[in-house]
Design goal:
Layout (H helix, E strand, L loop, with lengths): L1 E6 L2 E4 L4 E9 L3 E10 L6 E6 L5 E3 L7 E6 L4 E6 L8 E12 L2 E6 L3 E6 L1
Parallel strand pairs: 2-11
Antiparallel strand pairs: 1-3, 3-8, 4-5, 4-9, 5-6, 7-8, 9-10, 9-11
């Protein structure tokens, strides 16, 4: 079993910053791609950013230049640094990871979500 635990969400004023963390634990052989998603009330979940095992990143156009995704494989952790936050960034943020749970088998896991609220 693998568990992803998120932290760092909260309430912040527009223009402020937050850093989200997601740490994976359990029966992990290796972690492949990781990503951050978000879901606002009444809207579909969307990809915010992703990072591959080799460090290649991808971002939604709405967050480019403001958000940065990174990973620390020694800690099995992925981060999302969020700067210049806007009210439209308000959502529940979820982390996702492709985990090699056994040799040759990959299982995708999700975190429980953490609330980010940006006030105007």
């Amino acid at each position: 079993q693998v568990q992803l635990v998120e932290s760092g969400g909260g309430l912040v004023q527009a223009g402020g910053s937050l850093r989200l963390s997601c740490a994976a634990s359990g029966s992990i052989i290796r972690i492949g791609d990781m990503g951050w998603y978000r879901q606002a009330p009444g809207k579909q979940r969307e990809l915010v950013g992703s990072v591959t095992r080799s460090g290649s990143t991808n971002y939604a156009d709405s967050v480019k230049g403001r958000f940065t995704i990174s990973r620390d494989d020694a800690k099995n952790t992925v981060y999302l640094q969020m700067n210049s936050l806007k009210p439209e960034d308000t959502a529940v943020y979820y982390c996702n990871a492709d985990v090699y749970v056994t040799w040759g088998r990959i299982q995708q896991y999700w975190g429980q979500g953490t609330q980010v609220t940006v006030s105007s």
